[in-house]
Design goal:
Blueprint (H helix, E strand, L loop, with lengths): L14 H14 L3 H16 L3 E6 L2 E3 L4 E5 L7 H7 L1 H22 L3 H6 L9 E2 L4 H10 L4 E5 L2 H6 L8 H10 L4 E5 L2 E6 L4 E7 L1 H7 L13 E3 L16 H15 L4 E2 L5 E2 L1 E5 L1 H20 L3 H27 L12 E2 L1 H22 L9 H8 L7 E2 H10 L4 H10 L7 E5 L2 E4 L1
Parallel strand pairs: 1-12, 3-8, 3-9, 4-5, 5-8, 12-13
Antiparallel strand pairs: 1-2, 6-7, 10-11, 14-16, 15-16
Length: 435
């Protein structure tokens, strides 16, 4: 695969899918991080309520993700979303055609029969009206789950407090946690959803982000968002090429296979997700990571970092579940008749890597850009340090001396700017990377 400036751990996806995502990024000039996050959301939506990871006792997690793709105007944030959601959109169009046929048949019934029949209902997966009433109404008809797709997240967030202070925010906090959600209005009947699953994804500009999420820290609402803000995202040139049909069909087949994962339906027509568990090797990797993450929480004084790392311990289970099911869906069709029941060690590793990506993104975005207001010589130094690969301490000193920055000065600056919410992260002894 091509070497692209992306921090998103491509190994999260099966190799066949990762290669397709790189092609899409190169051919359409979409920033790779946006492509990956869009496909992650599409996969989570396709899985819906079909599968869950059983962790312990009554603790289960499902594939519910809140994702914000951040970038300046014109850097192709929305186009990757359109491409990634294509297989789901195709199904939505088919369902709408069927709804029109059913509606036509209903309208042609004699008046007496029509009065005794139930008018056809349009079941939707993707919606853009994100008021609690609209969301619960769709969940009532589609227990598998829905996706709130917002081209501009600011519009979604600005609908909060439309009726009463705190209602919308509390609704989404409950939905994210998988708790029952209830909407009571004087003008309509109460609706209760016992097992909601909601995915949200949208785009937002850096300057609007802080204003839109202002006041949403105390409740922990902001902490529940996975932030994607590739610092090197730029508008690309047009390409003379198009994605080949084999790649397009392979991607669509994977999403369709995920949509074909069927849960059990009990005698009361309730959805019972297929419950998966961790492999023994997987749970050991997870426990080791959780101990390291806990030490990081206890060892930092940064409230933002504490909050993000705390919520990521929920997301690691969801991302492990999604990774396992994407891998399952990428295999030959015959294997789909076997229900996946265990999450492998590799899927856990992939989830941990992706969690670390979102931790770095979240802390960098919310703690401010540490590269602002740097002296010109250090700005020039950053310009020649690659985003996409590790670098050694010796190489760093070589870069610095090339720009006539003394080695001792560069050494102190590197030490000062390495760590949480800073410019660099230490990979291991003598090896660093830009955050």
């Amino acid at each position: 695969m091509s070497e692209l400036k992306s921090k998103f751990p491509l190994s999260y996806f099966p190799e066949s899918l990762a290669e397709i995502l790189v092609k899409v990024s190169e051919i359409y000039s979409y920033p790779l991080d946006y492509v990956c996050c869009s496909v992650l959301s599409a996969s989570a939506t396709a899985i819906g309520n079909s599968n869950a990871i059983h962790i312990k006792n009554n603790w289960i997690e499902k594939s519910s993700l809140f994702i914000a793709m951040i970038g300046s105007p014109g850097v192709n944030k929305s186009a990757p979303l359109t491409w990634a959601m294509m297989p789901i959109e195709k199904k939505e169009k088919d369902l709408y055609k069927q709804y029109l046929r059913n509606l036509k048949d209903y309208d042609q019934l004699p008046a007496k029969e029509r009065d005794q029949s139930i008018e056809p209902i349009l079941v939707k997966t993707v919606i853009s009206d994100a008021t609690p009433e609209a969301v619960v109404q769709q969940l009532k008809h589609n227990e598998r789950g829905i996706l709130i797709l917002m081209d501009e997240l600011a519009g979604f967030l600005n609908t909060f407090q439309r009726y009463a202070k705190g209602n919308d925010e509390q609704f989404y906090l409950s939905a994210w946690s998988g708790k029952s959600v209830i909407v009571d209005r004087k003008t309509s009947r109460s609706i209760r959803i016992n097992d909601p699953i909601i995915n949200i994804i949208g785009t937002i500009q850096p300057g609007v982000l802080e204003k839109s999420f202002n006041g949403k820290d105390e409740s922990g609402f902001f902490d529940r968002w996975l932030l994607c803000h590739p610092p090197d995202a730029k508008k690309g040139y047009w390409s003379d090429y198009d994605i080949d049909m084999d790649s397009q069909e392979t991607y669509e087949r994977i999403i369709e296979n995920l949509m074909s994962l069927n849960p059990t339906i009990d005698m009361w027509e309730n959805i019972i997700p297929n419950r998966m568990t961790y492999s023994l090797a997987g749970i050991e990797i997870l426990k080791k990571w959780q101990r390291v993450n806990t030490d990081n929480i206890n060892g930092t004084t940064e409230d933002v970092n504490k909050a993000i790392r705390s919520k990521i311990e929920t997301y690691v289970h969801r991302l492990a579940l999604i990774a396992e099911l994407i891998d399952h869906a990428a295999k030959i069709n015959s294997e789909l008749y076997m229900k996946p029941c265990e999450i492998s060690a590799q899927s856990v590793r992939n989830a941990v890597d992706l969690c670390e990506y979102f931790i770095r993104m979240g802390t960098n975005v919310r703690s401010g850009d540490p590269t602002q207001n740097l002296p010109l010589n250090f700005k020039n130094l950053l310009d020649i340090i690659p985003f996409d690969t590790e670098f050694t301490f010796d190489k760093f000193i070589e870069y610095a001396e090339y720009l006539e920055i003394p080695g001792s000065t560069a050494r102190k600056w590197l030490r000062k700017n390495t760590g949480d919410n800073k410019i660099f992260i230490k990979i291991k002894h003598g090896f660093y990377a830009r955050q």
